[in-house]
Amino acid sequence: LESSLLTQPWASVCFGESAFLAKACFRDTGYILLISDLSGVWYESADAEAVGQRSKELNKRLTVHVSSFLHHLCKLMCPLLAGQPDAATSFSCHHTAGGLSLHVKSELSGLPFYWDFHCCPAPMEMVSCHLVRPLIRISLALQYQVQELTSLLLQKDAEIEDYRESGAALSRDRLRTEPFQEKTFQQNFMAEVRSSASPPSC
Question: Residue 150, class by beta-carbon neighbours within 10 Å (0-12 exposed, 13-18 middle, 19+ buried)?
């Protein structure tokens, strides 16, 4: 399950007024959920046996196969992660001693359906694998692209200046641009990075 989770994208989700990043993977054999508020990272991995036991405790009136519970959980969570939560489903979360609890309320077969994800702090290797290393790789790739584009813009400015010195003139003044200011660009870029260093607000 965890290897399949690696291919899942992070999604921005809101539970009440709290914003989180989350990703999940559901199979007939169980599920794994990873959630973060960028201050902490929590996860829960549950196999079919654990799901069956919890479903008996939370949904005593429902007598369906474990795979049906897992399929229903997937149907509830996937729209949420896709940014299209079902209005008939409610989600709430609260911090517990050393963990995070996510409560889900919906319906299944015309009866109330409840589920609790009991998330504990994710181990460092999981945080590194799913969050830190991908972010570092993306950051390095973006830095390389910025350097390439900066170099290209400076070359273009030099080329334009050479044309001007040779007597060339624009036929349409609205196409005139100011020379690229690398230092100003870097300052604005870092200001944007600092201002977006938290999950989107709900």
Answer: middle
